Predict the structure.
Amino acid sequence: MHTIPESSISQCPFHTVRRLQPTDVLLFPMHKRSIVQYQPGAEGQQELFLFYGDKEISFDEPELFSFGENLAKHGQFIAADALSWGQDYTWVQIQALLQQLIDETVIHYEDAYLATESAQPEVGNCPSPLPPASCTEAHTWLESAVLTENLTGRRLELGYLELVIPIFRVAHIALDAEGRQVGEANVFPKTLRMDIPTLWRTCIYPGSRYLDSKPMNVTALKSMRSYWPQMMACLLTIRAAYLARFPAAQQGWTLAHVEALSTLVLALPTYLLMRSADPIANAALHPALSCLFRVTDGLRVVTHQMIFVPVGEPTLAPSTPISAEEIYAYAERNFAFTSEHGVCAGPKGMIEEFLQVLIDGVATKNTEAATLEPEVAAALQQLQPAFDYGLYGLQVHAVAFSIWPLLMRTYVNLAELLENWRGSMSEDLLTWRSRLQQQAAIVRTQTYHATEELRSTREEAYAEIYQHCAQGLGQAIDEQDLVARLERFTPVVDGKLQHRLSHILFARFGVSEMLEDIELLADAIIGCLYKVQAILKLACAQQMQLNQVLDRPAPSAAFAANLMDIHNLLQGAENRKLPYLLDELEDILGISITLTQEILDIQQSNKLL
């Protein structure tokens, strides 16, 4: 972080050969991309922060706040003009400030910049930023078994869908009545995205998106504008239904509330598509509902980032109080308006209205003037079952995805056990140790599970989300504690199974004697597998409740642990940094693991790398 401290004001740093003169013309080429926000500083006092690309400039002296605010408004100025940006500024003081900004390449000498820098990006229509799509046929996840088998080689019955495909992504692949996929450019999985004619254009909105190299989807924006009054009216109705289930939100919103509410907005069209009785056909979903899904999914992504993504800023607990203004400010300074291929197409006014309606319950001229079309009005009659579906779905997701910090922790634990191995090591054991070292390094450097603190924080967040959903579903108090429920679902360790694994390890790695290290290794593996089984038991129990809401038939076979890896497989080879731990154990140990919610068995096999 680049901070302009008090000590820098009294002296002029000579970091460059050229000395800044009052008559020098300075450029702040992309000043419209700068973001000005007031936040508490390290000691709690108010500071002015200017976010610009990857730079963060702070002013901790109130007399300089005016300077910072005015800087963000000027794309070109004469150095001495900055003296008028506040009261009683001196040239020595302003020269030092501007020189620091020059040294940090925030502002530039006009002559030097024009001589070396290329022109700003052109404004106008752009080619599609998306790679050509491989999918030419529209699908929905009602085809779950066929789709997953074709895409991953593993067959996922429809009755287990939300265990693997997060409920907030289930509607992505479906088409609406305008022939556009609900997930637009962000369809998950990418392999099921279709090429649909779309107009892309350079973003000219001030803020983090300004003239970004990634364009915005103008076609989606045009459709959204057409249905905006109906969308805002729907939000007020959904918000009121949410407060009926979560009256505590009336006393103040938390991240858990906003994440749950945004997920429930998404759950309405998803429920209509996925229910067993009279589902909305593919390509028949009303565009007001698909547009509502898209804009609200942006909010859900931001809350997910705030809770789970420790990049840029530390994560926040779901119980953290939050406001519409704070969410918008976070999104701007953390580039949450930017996705893999494009930037958010919504202008600031629309985004602010959306947040004011959904979070603050503000009735606007759009909500008051809206006339709901019959399909939209009929959809709102399904809010209660859609809410049940959404809350069970989010609860299932919280349980099932708690498997990932557990598996990442086990990777690290196994690597540490082999690092601290006290007995002799065979060639195969040395090979596995080297492999585990590489895998543990990936966990520490390329995942959001890099430290035990991050893994534990993620598990705590899942537990909070689970409890929040349980409250909305009216579940008993003793059923709301995820950690306690998992402990109750964890079976007693089968001593015979653990003994068998110890013998397999002994035979596999050829150590000269039965060492204590072998037992520690077996304990770590068995302990992980039993915890995975507890997760599967609870997740499947909640999934069966979800299936009842949809009147969906129960699946015919038990849910096997290796089906959880379908989520990773659907992301594509380029996003897979680690093999699924259970597959890795089978490969390296030459074993076969049978793990469902009811069965855990380990047998010797001939499967060796």
Notes: The chain has three domains: 2-116, 200-381, 398-604. The chain has 21 helices and twelve strands. Confidence is low (pLDDT under 50) at residues 1-16. Residues 516-550 form the longest helix (35 residues).
